Prior knowledge:
With 292 residues, this protein is an alpha+beta fold. The chain folds into 2 domains: 113 residues, Beta Polymerase, domain 2 (2-Layer Sandwich); 158 residues, Nucleotidyltransferases  domain 2 (Four Helix Bundle (Hemerythrin (Met), subunit A)). The chain contains 11 helices and 8 strands. A hairpin with an 8-residue loop joins strand 7 and strand 8. This is Nucleotidyltransferase-like domain-containing protein.
Amino acid sequence: MKQSVFSIPDRETSNHQVIGAVGYRQQGSSFNGPLLHDFELIVLVICDRMDPDSVQIEHCISGSIRYQIKYIAQQDLLQWSISGESRELIRYFLHGEIFWEEHGKVTELRSRMIALEADMWDHRKLKEFSGFLRTYVQAKQYAREHDYMDAYYNMLQSLKHYARIELISRGIIPENSIWEQIRELNTEVYKLFDELTDSKESLEQRIELVLIACDFFVTSRMKECCQALLHIIGSRKEPWRIQELTEHPELKYIREDIPLLIRKLVYRSFVRQTSARAEERLGEGREIRYWL
């Protein structure tokens, strides 16, 4: 395929800082997910940086070929490859045809993403544990308020994160059909799912039983699941301000959950805290900082 056939913008014709474009074609009559849908082709235009106000997506036609153009920042691709998000886009990028690139930058980006494979599992485990902890704490709060329907919903979400952690720990990439995957492994989390959804006990009793099991999971697996975060905290001698951690580029995908994670890690003595002279705007208060 020649670039001239399609209206694929380059650096000279676009407001985006484009480094190349990758195309992925519809694979026969197989179902290809919502991004391709009924298009024959999706074109990923890879940008060095993107203006949030600029065009993000376009639908185009060339002759009889309908195709979708999606603009993506290379930093987002790197982040998704670590966190496990946007797996469909990652697959299209890694396995699609490079239509054109500037000075081999798209090929280099692919190589960097493949090299991240070793770190990927720890970051994905951290992401799922972050989601597990948030929904588990929320379920606990609802249960204490006797709001058992909301507690039940959050408990289901917690178990889904728990199940993904079990799969990731075995080197298995979680799919959408998470419970079909986990059922074959006969793990504790599937038994908890069955207990929560199909037990003859009252809803209150089911939630309380699963919460107790999740308490044990937090205690026994927190350090293992937070290795990516602990590695970053231990990467320098100076203690970290909480703001520094929430703004760290490698932790972008759990930014909102970092304060909760840190406090739980301190409580379990996996992270230490110290105080430092605070800025004047905090008055007499001293700022807490974190280190290993």
